[in-house]
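Progress against Task 2.4 (sequence-to-structure conversion) is shown through the following example record, which the project officer requested during the mid-term review.
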Amino acid sequence: MVSERGREAPRAPVPCDVRYRFDSKADFSVRTAVDLSATGVFLPAEGAHQVGAMVELQLVSLGGARILRGFGRVARVGRCPDGSPGMGVQFVSFDEEDLALLEKLVAAAGGEAPKVPGRS
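Structure tokens generated for the chain above:
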């Protein structure tokens, strides 16, 4: 389940590649993030992934200068803007330095918090 904080975190269409896998013995799949925040990422994903499933992640920052590694949990399954299947992954285990870098990337890309109905 996505926390209220995670839902309100500023998001931006930060162009970064995301390598992910659900099984530590499997090869990584690589997709380009649809949007990114300091609390999670939404990315295209083939196949059915269950909400709550743990996923190993590697994010390549702009220019490929750095790889951020950690774990996340599938928070929601939905559709990308182009209608293809996608999934929202909430970050569970990233170090503080990586999270700070993610916040800077989102802010630099003009990230804004999503509108929450009933709030100003």
